[in-house]
Amino acid sequence: MLSLKLPRLFRIDQVPQVFHEQGILFGYRHPQSSATACVLSLFQMTNETLNIWTHLLPFCFFTWRFVTALYVTDIWNDSYSWPLFVYMGTSCVYPLASSCAHTFNSMSKNARHICYFLDYGAVNLFSLGSAIAYSAYSIPNVMVNTTFHDYYVPLAVLNTIISTGLSCYSRLGFAAGEAGSFAPGKALYQAGRNVVSSHGKSMVWGMAPRRPQPAFLLSSSLPSVLPESPHPGLPAPSQQRPHRILSRRTYLSLPRFLEIQKPGLCKMLRVLAFAYPYTWDSLPIFYRLFLLSGDGAQNEAALYHQKHTAMTLLASFFYSAHLPERLAPGRFDYIGHSHQLFHVCVILATHLQMEAIVLDKTLRREWLLANSRPLSFPQIAGAVLLCLIFSLSNIIYFSAALYRIPEPELHKKET
After folding, report:
1. Residues 337 and 324 sit within 8 Å (Cβ to Cβ)
2. Which of 8, 230, 234, 289 is least crowded, fewest Cβ atoms below 10 Å from its Cβ?
């Protein structure tokens, strides 16, 4: 009988600092897992398993809704439905990107950053899809054909571009800019490689031997655990190289990641990067909910818009507060930590938003077709294309910066 060997899991003090999550102590995967090991971890209880499935299953659901809507609609002749299909398509993209990011983010430090860069880009693409749908179906009657309506989608495109750049910047900070002029010598590269071969010894500094290791290379406890492990793929003590010295001057010349140096500022920038496009997209909805309480048929979708807004605020709270795991570290490592709750709230918010948009589209069809200028195919395609081009340019820039920063070889990938 065939037996499936699941990947080994590690504690927080056994993995590099870049992989650490606040309040999560156990269930970390190998910091250089193979793609196969990452896929196998879907069927193993790690601290990422529910993060993956809470977006992978909704991706299947939203895809089913999207395909069903396409099947019952004459898409070539019903231009009124085009914004809805763009919105539904982007609502499929971001859960898939998120689940892939959480699946493959343990392949390496660089892979982790790139996975989340793509995740941020997908979220901002969904933000644009929401703006297109709101512009077509949910904008209040008094705003239709106004200057605000004319510039609403173009500014939403600009917001997605800025937001993607800011969210990527929140992970690397000035390290991305420093990387362009960073040219490590052979001795520095060798010193970095030998961080993991010190076999329990602390990093030796030229002037201050007890200072901590540079966080972007490795956490100080990784060498003391991995070389001693008999796990396949990890170096045996006999294969380790002599301990080297990394001077303080060399350390200070290394690019430093904002995510590690100032995690609070990093989180604040990332929340801001997602909050202000959402605020701009939601201005027509806020106007309807708080200033047009007697606006007739529009109110039949108002309840869904209210629930969507409340669920989005709850998701933002979980994303920024790191509760409950911050109050009880180690208790919610596998089930119930804030990122899982954030995922659930985001999916529920998207479902409520989709119901509201579909209801607006149906109830307001006649009035909108008679009084509004519908978005044309070139306008919709141009907005989506600009968002993709500039967001991907941001992602490529920050990803290239990662590879201009030297990354030490930790050990062979786990298979």
Report:
1. yes
2. 230
Are 14 and 222 in contact by the 8 Å Cβ rule? The answer is yes
Buried b (16+ CB within 10 A) or exposed e, 307-333: bbbebbebbbebbeebeebeeeeeebb
Which position has the token pair 């992978």? 56
pLDDT in tens, 75-103: 999 999 999 999 999 999 999 999 999 99
> What's the CA gap between 415 and 40, in Å, rounded?
10
What is the separation, in whole angstroms, between the first and last Cα of the chain?
Answer: 20
Ranges under pLDDT 50 in the chain: 1-2, 180-255, 296-297, 409-412
pLDDT digits (tens, 9 = 90+) for 109-164: 999 999 999 999 999 999 999 999 999 999 999 999 999 999 999 999 999 999 99
SS3 track for the chain: CCCCCCCCEECHHHCCHHHCCCCCCCCEECCCECHHHHHHHHHCCCCCHHHHHHHHHHHHHHHHHHHHHHHCCCCCCCHHHHHHHHHHHHHHHHHHHHHHHHHHCCCCHHHHHHHHHHHHHHHHHHHHHHHHHHHHHHCCHHHCCCHHHHHHHHHHHHHHHHHHHHHHHHHHCCHHHHHCCCCCCHHHHHHHHHHHHCCCCCCEECCCCCCCCCCCCCCCCHHHHHHHCCCCCCCCHHHCCCCCEECHHHHHCCCCCHHHHCHHHHHHHHHHHHHHHHHHHHHHHHHHHHHCCCCHHHHHHHHHHHHHHHHHHHHHHHHHHCCCCCCCCCCCCCCCCHHHHHHHHHHHHHHHHHHHHHHHHHHCHHHHHHHCCCCCHHHHHHHHHHHHHHHHHHHHHHHHHHHHCCCCCCCCCEC
d(CA 236, CA 253): 32
Phi, psi of 57 (to 5 degrees): -65, -45
Residue 145 Ramachandran class (φ > 0 left, ψ -120 to 50 alpha, else beta):
left
Contact indicator for 79, 365 with CB cutoff of 8 Å: no
pTM of the model: 0.80
